[in-house]
Amino acid sequence: MSRVTVRRPILRLRDTALTRRVDVLAAEEPLEIRLDGRPLTVTMRTPGDDFDLAAGFLVSEGAVGSPGEIAGIRYCAGATAEGINTYNVLDVSLGAGAVALVTSLERNFYTTSSCGVCGKASLEAVRTVARWPVEDEGLKLSAEVIGVLPDRLRAAQRVFDRTGGLHAAGLFTPEGEPLCVREDVGRHNAVDKLLGWALRDGRLPLRSTVLMVSGRASFELVQKAVMAGIPALAAVSAPSSLAVELAAEAGVTLIGFLRGGSMNVYTGEQRLSFTTQRPAHTVPDSPAP
Q1: CB atoms within 10 A of CB 111
Q2: Looking at the annotation, which residues are catalytic?
Q3: Average pLDDT per run of 10 along the chain, which is 289 residues long?
Q4: Does residue 145 sit in the same domain as residue 269?
Q5: Can you name the residues that pair with 24 across neighbouring β-strands?
Q6: Does 93 share its domain with 118?
Q7: Which domain holds residue 82?
């Protein structure tokens, strides 16, 4: 699709100089996802990889886990009163094995590009049951390899280079090789696009992979990793307390503040190897503000 970016005239101030120019913006449009003809959710997203986004959303919700559980995905023609196809409405047809799971979906509300769990009935409803436990996943990771993932993710952000306004999520091998990278205005959408790609390509569960995200590690991103069988999640920014709690419960290796080779390991440190020979020492807690 060609609607990933939008050009808009702006007035720019640099130092004391005023200039008029055209700026390139990341596109943001609503996507309504329907399930067998019934409205399910609306999310604000960057157009592109919409089929993967819808499929990944269903993976995150525990509704599907194999390609055969989705019979088809199509854009809905006649989405407007004039019968125009806006390419902003998708209908997902479910296959055998998915119907019983769909009855547990509780989100049928508007979802913004910054929130992946809006409309959930309760915190307990968010704690979906994963098909593929990851706590016993024997993945081994080098801290040196993990340290280069932010640069490799950034190098694959083609639309970010033009707009500066998109989140990114990437799947990497234990050796740091990229498997797939997706961008979106919503960080949870970027991850869903990855999961949908993996589902449609028959790659679930995503054993022996690392999920790298360009923003913070929120609860919903840890949840998505768990639902896809991903044993390690790394983020360039901070995790939330609930994200760390879920990662600890699920056995996910969670890394935050991954920048320039430095990192904070919050859970799952047994999967990491370090070249340093000096034992870790304990730093006293800072006084509460």
Answers
A1: 23
A2: 115
A3: 81 92 90 91 94 96 93 82 81 81 46 53 55 91 96 83 79 97 94 98 97 94 95 97 94 95 96 79 65
A4: yes
A5: 7
A6: yes
A7: 29-126
